[in-house]
Amino acid sequence: MPVCIAGMARSGTSLCTRMLNLCGVYLGEEADLLPPAPDNPDGFWENIRFVSVNEELLSMYGGAWDCPPTIPLDDRSEQFARLRAKAEATLETFADREPWGWKDPRNSLTLPFWRRYFPETNVVICLRNPLEVAQSLYKRSWYSTELSLTLWYVYNRRLMDAIPPDRRIITHYDAYFDDPEREIRRVLDFLALPVADDRIAAACASVTRGSRHHRFTTQQMRDADVTPAILDLYTTMCDAAEGLAADPPHPSDDQYSAATTETPIGPAVAGVGRLDRAAMDILLLRDEIHDLNAVIGAAKEEQEQLRTWGHGLEQQLTKLGEEYERRGAYMSEMEKHLVARDASIAEQGRYIAELEALIPAKEAYIARLEGDIANRQRYTTVLEGLIPPKDAYIAQLEALIPPKDAYIARLEAAVAGQRQYIADLEAYIPLKEAYIAALEADAEAHRRYIATLEGAISAKNASLASPESTPPSDVGAPAASPNGRPHRPARRVASNE
Q1: Contact call for residues 273 and 148 (beta carbons, < 8 A)
Q2: Torsions phi, psi of 216, nearest 5?
Q3: Nearest alpha-carbon partner for 229 in 208, 257, 251, 205
Q4: Strands 122-127, 3-6: pairing kind
Q5: Which of 54, 157, 466, 480 is the most exposed place for a label (fewest CB within 10 A)?
């Protein structure tokens, strides 16, 4: 079941509708909503489809929102039939949306038309003090107070006559500034809409007190000599707005009793908007004086705040001055440190430049060392190439001289150690000249050792070549090499004879 929001223009219909929207009531696609305007910067929250039907309906009978016509419900014209088709097409766009609703102050005049589709619809009637409405319309559109009061009466009289009490709830504009949560919960309870607390809080947060510009009382309505018809209707509606006490109604005046039954603008309501213009001007002047006093009070508070702020600013400036001096002294010290650091960096730069100048000579020296090591490696490779033939010869001797196996194994281990030693030399290329000299001395010792071995091998070959010769007594114990390693025994050469 849809929710209809109605009430006289400038009575808080936009504020109430926005709160219901934040509580989950669907109003239509955003593109179908009227955009905000200078006189309503928070938005109208009116669906242009419903507004269009309402305006056409009023125009069809020679009226408008500010000139309410009498709308017959038994019109069988083709134009009325087209308008009904347009209304039905609009309603179809909400067929699968619940809860949904629409807001338009014109609903106050056209509601009987819409109730033909939703006879059980619930209506939220937004109420505001008639003098506040009149003053707001005067500032927005320069409408006279008399016209605005007459429109207020017609709108609210038609609503009260068209909607049964069990299908309407009256919500007062003031309640949303006094206790918005209580009032919106009251409206939601009437509509049977369960809403989470966080959504209600968001709805209440949308109420801006800056949108409240005028506030009049019932007593001020009497002071301005507002007609009893308006005063009685307003107090009756205030009584119906739960939780808002109204001043006792003014004694009824039979002069305007007929106005409660006929509400189109015309002879039936002529003079209903009458009031004491001088008294109204006094009220407005008092209201302006009140506003000016509020502005002056706010200005004084702001002046005091500025004075306090200025005093605090002076204290901050004093502290900033002290901080500036302290940081100035710190910066001076830092500049001294920077000068010393720059001097140190310059000195280090010169030292680095000297080191860089030595690098080419060191690189050339390293290249020479690498060349010498390469030559040593080639020489070692040549020597290693001689070992296999000797190993074969030794194998022949092993068959004849088993006791010499251990000696040969030690000799091979020594050769392996020399190979590892040469590999270590390759890994330690960056060693200084002293280490290279040691390598050269060791290589020289090896050369002598190899020469000794070769001499011993030659002697052994000669001895083996002569069958009648007797091996020397020291064959089993070869002489030691200069580096402490034993000499390899001479190989026996098999006779070809």
Answers
A1: yes
A2: -120, 155
A3: 257
A4: parallel
A5: 466
Up-side HSE of residue 368: CA atoms within 13 Å toward CB? 8
3-state SS, the chain, equals CCEEEECCCCCCHHHHHHHHHHCCCECCCHHHECCCECCECCCCCCEHHHHHHHHHHHHHCCCECCECCCCCCCCCCHHHHHHHHHHHHHHHCCCCCCCEEEECCCHHHHHHHHCCCCCCCEEEEEECCHHHHHHHHHHHHCCCHHHHHHHHHHHHHHHHHHCCHHHEEEEECCHHHHCHHHHHHHHHHHHCCCCCHHHHHHHHHCCCHHHCCCCCCHHHHHHCCCCHHHHHHHHHHHHHCCCCCCCCCCCCCHHHHHHHCCCCCCHHHCCCCCCCHHHHHHHHHHHHHHHHHHHHHHHHHHHHHHHHHHHHHHHHHHHHHHHHHHHHHHHHHHHHHHHHHHHHHHHHHHHHHHHHHHHHHHHHHHHHHHHHHHHHHHHHHHHHHHHHHHHHHHHHHHHHCCCHHHHHHHHHHHHHHHHHHHHHHHHCCCCCHHHHHHHHHHHHHHHHHHHHHHHHHHHHHHHHHCCCCCCCCCCCCCCECCCCCECCCCCCCCCCC
**Look-up of token digits 């125009």:** 59
CA 375 to chain centre: 71
Residue of 169, 35, 45 lying closest to 104 (CA atoms): 45
Residue 464 vs residues 292, 297, 488, 492: alpha-carbon distances, Å: 139, 135, 16, 5
Residue with tokens 């010869």: 393
More confidently predicted of 155 and 257: 155
**Each residue of 427-463: b (16+ CB within 10 Å) or e?**
eeeeeeeeebeebeeeeeebeebeebbeebbeebeeb
d(CA 495, CA 475): 19
Cis peptide before 69 (omega within 30 of 0): no
Weakest mean pLDDT among 247-261, 430-444, 474-488 = 247-261
Nearest Cα to Cα of residue 108 among 144, 33, 58: 58
Cβ-proximal residues to 209 (8 Å cutoff; 6+ apart), any chain: 177
For the chain, the distance separating the N- and C-terminal CA atoms, rounded to the nearest angstrom, is: 133
User: How far is 14 from 191, CA to CA, in rounded Å?
Assistant: 18
Question: How many other β-carbons are positioned within 10 Å of the β-carbon of residue 177?
Answer: 17
Contact 172, 235 (CB under 8 A): no
Token pair of 308 as six digits: 């306090």
Please name the residues in contact with 114: beta carbons below 8 A apart, sequence gap of 6 or more: 4, 87, 107, 121
Per residue in 164-193, pLDDT tens?
A: 999 999 999 999 999 999 999 999 999 999
pLDDT value of residue 423: 82
